[in-house]
Amino acid sequence: MKDAILRLLKERRPEPVSGEDICKSLNVTRTAIWKHMQVLRESGYEIEARPRAGYTLTGIPDRLYPEEILDGLSTRFLGRKIYYCDSVSTTNETAKELARQGAAEGAVVVAEEQTGGKGRLGRRWFAPKYKGIWFSLILCPPVLPPEANQVTMLAAVAVAAAIRKETGIAVGIKWPNDLLVSGRKICGILTELSAEMERINYMVVGIGINVNQEQTDFPEEFRESAASLRTASGIKINRVKLIRAALAEFEQWYEIWLERGFTPVLASWKEMSVSLHCQVRIHAPNKSWEGWAEDIDSDGALLLRLPGGELQRVISGEVSL
Ligand code: BTN
C-alpha cells in the first residue's frame, strides 16, 4: 500500500493528490493514508500536506531503496529482486548466504554502508554511508569455473559503460578490473565463487563505486590512490540512476556473452583499457615484474613482455602504471 501511495504521489508530482482521490483509487481509509504518509516521511520522502489540496511529494531521499531502483529499471532478470541493507558487514557475504538459501539468479544485495567491506587480494574496501554504491549480484553462469573470470571483466566493461553514459566521465579500465579516472580508482570488483570441478553453483560479483565522497572522506591510506565520481566531475551524482544504468548495462553484456562468448566483451574491455600497450609493474602475492603490457588472452590473463624478450602470462596481481 505504501508503494502504491508513493506511485500515485510520483505520477501527480508536482501537483497534489487529494486524500479523497487516494481513498478512492486505492480503497483505503484516511487514517491508513495518514499512517503511510508518516512511514514515507520517516524513510526520507518529503511530503507536504495542505488542508484542502491534499498531499504533494516535494522531495525524494538520496537512498538506494529497491522501489526507487525498480522505478524505471529496464532489465529482464537482473535486479528484479533487490535485498536492501542500511548497514551490513559486506554485501558479498550477504549475497553468498542468500545464494546458499536458493536466491534466484539476478538477485542483488545493495547496502548504504559496509562496515567490513572486502577488496581483492585480502585488502579492505572503504564503503561509507550514502556516499557510494556497494552491491553484489548473484549469478549462475552456465560455464566451467575457469571461465568465471570472464564475468568479472564483463562487469568492469558494463560499469564503465554505465558511468560513461550516465555521467560523461571518461573512466578507463586497469587490468584486471579496476575502474580509474585520471589515474585514481573509483570502482573495484570482487568476485567470489562456489563451484565444483564441472560447474558453478553460484557466483557473487561484488561491485563498489565511489560516487559522492569528498577527497577528505577517504582514509589516509586511500587518499592518494582513490577518487569518487564527484571529485572527478565536481558534480553530485544521482546514485539511483547510476545503479539502474549499471544493472541494465550488465544484463545487456551478460546476454551478449551468453550468446556470443567472451570475444565481444574482451574487445570492449581492450577499447576502454588504460593498462595495455604501456610499461607497467605488476605485483603478485610472491613476485613482481616490470614489462610491456602487450595483450590480454582469451582467459583474461595479462601477457607481459619482459625486458629479456620473453612473454610472461600473469593471471592475478596488482598493476602500477
Ligand atoms: C577491489 O578492487 O579490491 C575490489 C573491491 C570490491 C568492493 C565491493 S563493494 C561491494 C562488495 N562487497 C565487498 O565487501 N566488496 C565488494
TrEMBL record:
UniProt-recorded Gene Ontology molecular function terms: ATP binding; biotin--[biotin carboxyl-carrier protein] ligase activity; DNA binding; transferase activity
Keywords: ATP-binding, Biotin, DNA-binding, Ligase, Nucleotide-binding, Repressor, Transcription, Transcription regulation
DNA-binding region: 19-38
PROSITE patterns on file: BPL_LPL_CATALYTIC (PS51733)
HAMAP family listed in its UniProt record: Bifunct_BirA
PANTHER family hit by this protein: BIOTIN PROTEIN LIGASE (PTHR12835), BIOTIN--PROTEIN LIGASE (PTHR12835:SF5)
Protein name in the entry: Bifunctional ligase/repressor BirA
Gene field: birA
